[in-house]
Design goal:
The protein has 319 residues and is an alpha/beta fold. The protein is built from 12 helices and 13 strands. Strand 5, helix 5 (133-141) and strand 6 form a beta-alpha-beta unit. The longest helix is centred in the C-terminal third of the chain and has 20 residues, at 296-315. It is globular, with a radius of gyration of 19 Å.
């Protein structure tokens, strides 16, 4: 399986996933200059006019890094577009992605041929996130270049399929790039993603507990303190099933064991002063590997050490 040029030469086969509120230029720049793909949802830039300023800031920072470090240039960045009828900004943000030739666009909650064609018009690539094989086929049919397989255990909106089953089914017919999402928070898990057929690991929650992430200190500490047992899978907060930190649900006055089903048409849960986008904290099941709040560069260095150690162990295993 050969990767598109834009995804070759990474320090580590990792994409930092776009996280609502948390992923801002500071985090993206730190990820890219550390050698992994950094990404952010276009909707994090509010008001809409700020989106172009963010694109300019990221592009300028990465160009400056490359000029100062020709021996280890920055990884590319990606923008996440929500392709859903509720996103009134889609066309506005898409036009700016084309104008600034965003190298990688990650599409979510829908797949559209016109969006893919627009990104392809300047040589960009589109990765579409999916939770099952049926959606994967639809995304590729509509022109996606690659897929993000969102398996069980992923933070935020996540599927229920085992990563082994999901990647296996997609690989039966698709030879393009696949990034695997689902409880990946150490270097061994990145290697495991590749071993089961994916090309890259897709990591979100571990990056929340970094100094550059735009998350509250309590949120970062909850990631450090938490484990897989602290993750609750619910559709209440956006109408789409996702994984969330139990302590934030309890702090909102809700019982994690008895959550109602959400309304997919609403996608904006609030109860009293509690708002899902601010008070209910998304997280994946892999957070047991996160032991401290660190800089992005330190996290990527840890992932690299673990990846290389796992590779050595694999190569030295008895036959």
């Amino acid at each position: 399986m050969s990767l598109p040029n834009v995804l070759q030469g990474l320090r580590l086969p990792v994409i930092g996933s776009p996280m609502f509120i948390i992923s801002t230029p500071d985090l993206v720049i730190a990820q890219c200059t550390s050698g992994v793909v950094g990404s952010f949802p276009s909707l994090n830039a509010r008001p809409a006019e700020r989106f172009e300023a963010w694109l300019q800031q990221i592009s300028s920072a990465l160009a400056e890094w490359d000029a100062a470090h020709p021996e280890r240039k920055a990884a590319p960045y990606a923008v996440n577009l929500i392709v859903h009828r509720s996103n009134a900004r889609l066309l506005h943000d898409l036009e700016l992605c084309v104008k600034h030739r965003v190298p990688i666009v990650i599409t979510s909650l829908g797949a559209r041929e016109d969006v893919n064609a627009a990104i392809h018009s300047y040589g960009g690539i589109v990765l579409h996130d999916v939770i099952d094989n049926r959606f994967a086929k639809k995304a590729v049919e509509k022109g996606a270049d690659g897929l993000i397989a969102v398996a069980a255990g992923a933070g935020g909106h996540a599927g229920t399929l085992s990563p082994f089953a999901l990647v296996q089914e997609i690989r039966e017919w698709f030879s393009g790039p696949i990034a695997l999402s689902g409880a990946i928070a150490n270097g061994g898990a990145v290697l495991a993603a590749q071993a089961c057929g994916a090309d890259l690991g897709y990591i979100g929650s571990a990056f929340i507990a970094t100094e550059e992430a735009n998350a509250a200190a309590a949120y970062k500490q909850a990631i450090v303190d938490g484990s897989a047992a602290d993750i609750v899978y619910s559709s209440l907060f956006t109408g789409v099933h996702g994984n969330y930190l139990r302590p934030s649900i309890i702090a909102a006055g809700l019982d994690p064991e008895h959550l109602a089903e959400g309304n997919a048409a609403d996608m904006n849960f609030h109860e009293g002063s509690t708002k899902a986008w601010k008070d209910i904290w998304g997280s994946g099941q892999g957070i047991g590997a996160v032991k401290a709040v660190v800089k992005v560069a330190e996290l990527v260095a840890r992932l690299e050490r673990e990846y290389e150690a796992a590779l050595v162990k694999l190569n030295n295993r008895p036959v």
